[in-house]
Design goal:
Chain A is of the alpha/beta class and about 625 residues long. In chain A, about 60% of the residues lie in helices and about 10% in strands. Chain A has 27 helices and 12 strands. Chain B is of the alpha+beta class and about 80 residues long. The chains are: A alpha/beta (about 625), B alpha+beta (about 80).
Amino acid sequence: MNPLPLVAVAGNPNAGKSALFNALTGARQKVGNYPGVTVERHVGRATLPDGAPVEFVDLPGAYGLDPSSPDEAVTRDVLLGKQKGERLPQALLIVVDASNLDNHLRFALQLIDLGLPTVIALNMIDLAKRDGLELDSRKLEEELGVPVVETVAVRKRGMDEIMSRLNELLLQPRKIRAGDGPSHDLLTLQRRAREIAMGAIVRETPVRRITHRLDGVLLHPVAGPIILAAVMFLMFQAVFSWSKIPADALGAATLDLGNVIGQALPLGAIRSLIVDGVFAGVGAVIVFLPQILILFGFILVLESTGYMVRAAFIMDRLMSHAGLSGRAFIPLLSSFACAVPGIMATRTIDDPKDRLTTILVAPLMTCSARLPVYTLIIAAFIPAITVGPGIGLQGLILFGLYISGIVSALLAAIVLSKTAVKGGGGAFMMELPKYQLPRLNDVMIGLWQRAMIFLKRAGTIILGTTIILWALASFPQAGPGEKQSDVSIAGHIADGIHAVVAPIGFNKDISMALLPAMAAREVAVAAIGTVYSLDATSDQGVQSLEQRLAGRWSLATALAFLAWFVFAPQCISTIAVTRRETNGWKWPLFMVSYLFVLAYIAAGATYWTAVAFGLG
Amino acid sequence: MTGPMIPLDQLKLGTRARIAAIDWAVLGESEANRLKQFGFDEGVSIEPLHLGPFGKDPLAVKVGRMTVAIRKAQAKAVKVTTEAA
C-alpha cells in the first residue's frame, strides 16, 4: 500500500504554525521522535475536499535552512528528503505571520526555492489589521508565484481554502525532487523579502500596539521582576495546593481498586504481586498526574501567551553569572516537574556549551518525583509545629530542600562552565513575539500529549521495576523466625550496598530502596513500602508507613536521606535522555558520577553534623 | 542630514535610528547568522525598547517589524545613526 501523501507545515517560530496544524488536523495527531535525535515528530491526518486522506507533519519552527539547533536541522533535513524516519513531503504549507512579513518571507523564499508544490498561509491576518496593517494577498501571490491564503488559524478561518489549494496541487502529476539546500546569500534574500513585503502593504496606520504597552509593564525594570516572582509563586502554589484533591482521589481510587481485585484473588504470590507490587507501586506514582498536568498547564499557557521569553529576558543577566543564558530558565523551570522534559527543552538553547551545562545541572532542580520521598520523611520525622506566624516547620524544611537544589544547580553551573564545559556563553538572542491569548484547544492538546507520555512511563518502566523489586524482595520466602528483608535476594544485594553507604548513616532499608530508586526516584517510597509490608506481622499491619519509619530510623539518618535526595543520582530515564541529547555516554556518565559524589558528601556531612548535635 | 554613528547599546531607549554598519567580524559565526535571520542589515530601522532589570542587560530592540532580545556584547557590533533634526 502506498503511504498517504505527506504535507510538511513549515515556518518561522511564532508564525502560528502549531495552531494551524492543530486547526487542520484536530485531535487526530501522533507525537513521536525522529530516530537518533530527541526532536518531537508531530503528525496528523485530515481529509481533502475530494475525500482522500492526507497526512500533515508539523516541522519545528526555524528561521532558515542553515540550522543553528537540532530542531532546525530536522526541519532542513525533512525538506531535503535527508531525514531518517521521514519520507520526502509531496507538498509544503508555509506559514507566515502577516504582521511580520519582511522577516518571515525570507525563510518562505528559501522554502519556495526548494521546488516543492507550495501553499502559503498568510496567518494572523486579523492581528495585522488590528495593528493597522492592510495587505494585498493577490499582489503577494503574483510576486511569490505560489497560492497565498489568508488565515486566522486560532479561529479556523481559511482552513477550507488551504485544503482545496493543497488538493489541487496534490492532484497535478508532478515529479518531486529533493532540493539542494540554501543557494542564496542570506542578506540578498532578506532584501528581496523586504521589497516584496513593501509591495504587498496597501496601507499602514501607526497604532500603539498592545504588545508594546504590555511590555512597558511586564518588562519594567521594577515591576517586571516582581510580576515574574508573583507568577512563579502562583505556579508553585497551584502545583502543590490545587493538586491535593484530585491526587488524593486518584490515590484512594487506585488503592480501592487494588483491594477489590486483591480480594477476588486467592491468597498467595499472585495476590501479593498484584496488591503489594503493582497497585502499591504504580499507585504511588499515578498520584503525581495532577501535579504534572498543573505544572505543564502553566508552562504551556506561559509559552503560548509569549510570556515565557519575557521571563527569560528578565532572568538572562542573573543566569549569565552562573555561566548560563536566559534561555536555560525555561528548561530549568520545567525540571521542577521532571528533568526529562527539562533536558528535552534545552534544544532551544543555541550555544552547545550553554546547552550542555544546562543539561548537566537540570537533575539538581527538585523534580516532582522527589516530592513523595520528601513528604514521607518530613511527615515521619519533622514535628508539625509552627515556627512563626503562618510558617510551619514541615513546610519550611521542604522549602529549604528546594532552595538547596536551586543553589547547588547554580553553583554547579558556575564550576562546570569554568572547568568541564569551558568556552561557552556570551550569546542570548531570541525573538520577543506578540502577546496572544492562550487557546484552550491548543493547551488541551499539549496537556493530553504530556499526560500520555507520563502514563506510558508509569505503565512501563515504573511497573516493570516494581514487579522486579517485588520478586527480588519476596523470594526466597522467609522461614519461621526470619525476616523477609534479610533472606530475600534484595536483602543480599542491599547488604552489599549497605557496606558502602553505612558510613553516611544509611541503614539497610535505605540500601534496599536506593537501587530501584534509580529506575524512578518515586519508586524509593514504593520500595520502602513494599519491603515493610512484606516484613509486617499481623499486629503491625495497621501502622502507617510513617509510623513504621519513625520507629526504625534515627533523625540523623532521616536527615541524611533527605540530603542524599537533593542530589539524588538520577533515574534511568534522565540518564537515557541525557545520552540521546549529548550523543554518547561520556556526559551521562560524568553527570552520574558528579551527582553521586555530591550526594554522598552531602548525606555524610548531614549525618555526622546531626550526630554531633546528639540526634543520632 | 544624519547624525553621528554610535553603537546600538549607547542609543537611548525609545530613539528610532537606522543601522549604518554591522561589524560582522567581531561576532561569532552563529551569532552573526542569527542576527541576519532576525533581519539585521544596513538601512533597517531599529529602536531600543527595554533593558534587562538586572545590570541593564540584555537589550530588547525593535528591528524592522520584529522585537528581539540580544546582549549588550552583541549590540556593540551594530552601529546606528539617528535622523538628526
